[in-house]
């Protein structure tokens, strides 16, 4: 029993010496109350993207144009689709009444299939045109905002200007919100080219 006690005391003494011998200096603790020099000069702001979309005249005009174009595409496709369905229903009814010869029925069916393929081609082409127009608008909107922010920031000297859309920033103090200034400046600089 004395051996075990002696072993335990010896082990504790060796462990204590090892711990104190490893580092004679006081541990260095970082002072987190002082920000680095560069971070203390960091000036940031953010802009609400949703506000730009609803208040920037360019965005409103172009969104309206795209919406009208989308509605027109949908109407065109729906009308042609309804006409094709009516023709197919009429064909089916005449087939059941034995109104066509076999050759006539095959020719009409081939015509209906061609109309179906043409409709699908039209839908694809109009969809591609609409997508290209949307991409063109998004690029023009982005360029417009980016170019304006370069001019805006010459006086303001922000290090960073974030875009805030929905809840993509977990927290943002309203003191850093420059949306109203940016929207007002964008609208002032906008010349109404979406109408052209």
UniProtKB/TrEMBL annotation:
<dbReference type="InterPro" id="IPR024930">
    <property type="entry name" value="Skp_dom_sf"/>
</dbReference>
<dbReference type="InterPro" id="IPR005632">
    <property type="entry name" value="Chaperone_Skp"/>
</dbReference>
<dbReference type="GO" id="GO:0005829">
    <property type="term" value="C:cytosol"/>
</dbReference>
<dbReference type="GO" id="GO:0051082">
    <property type="term" value="F:unfolded protein binding"/>
</dbReference>
<dbReference type="GO" id="GO:0050821">
    <property type="term" value="P:protein stabilization"/>
</dbReference>
<dbReference type="Pfam" id="PF03938">
    <property type="entry name" value="OmpH"/>
</dbReference>
<keyword id="KW-0449">Lipoprotein</keyword>
<comment type="similarity">
    <text>Belongs to the Skp family.</text>
</comment>
<keyword id="KW-0732">Signal</keyword>
<protein>
    <submittedName>
        <fullName>Putative lipoprotein</fullName>
    </submittedName>
</protein>
């Amino acid at each position: 029993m004395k051996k075990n006690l002696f072993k335990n005391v010896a082990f504790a003494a060796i462990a204590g010496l090892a711990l104190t011998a490893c580092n004679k200096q006081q541990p260095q603790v970082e002072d987190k109350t002082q920000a680095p020099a560069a971070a203390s000069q960091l000036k940031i702001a953010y802009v609400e993207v949703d506000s730009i979309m609803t208040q920037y005249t360019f965005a409103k005009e172009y969104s309206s144009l795209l919406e009208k174009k989308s509605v027109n595409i949908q109407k065109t496709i729906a009308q042609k689709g309804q006409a094709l369905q009516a023709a197919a229903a009429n064909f089916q009814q005449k087939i059941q009444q034995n109104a066509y010869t076999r050759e006539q029925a095959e020719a009409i069916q081939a015509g209906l299939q061609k109309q179906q393929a043409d409709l699908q081609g039209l839908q694809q082409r109009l969809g591609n045109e609409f997508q290209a127009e949307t991409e063109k608008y998004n690029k023009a909107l982005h360029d417009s905002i980016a170019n304006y922010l370069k001019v805006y920031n010459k006086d303001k000297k922000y290090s960073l200007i974030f875009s805030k859309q929905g809840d993509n920033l977990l927290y943002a103090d309203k003191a850093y919100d420059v949306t109203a200034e940016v929207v007002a400046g964008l609208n002032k600089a906008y010349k109404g080219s979406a109408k052209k």
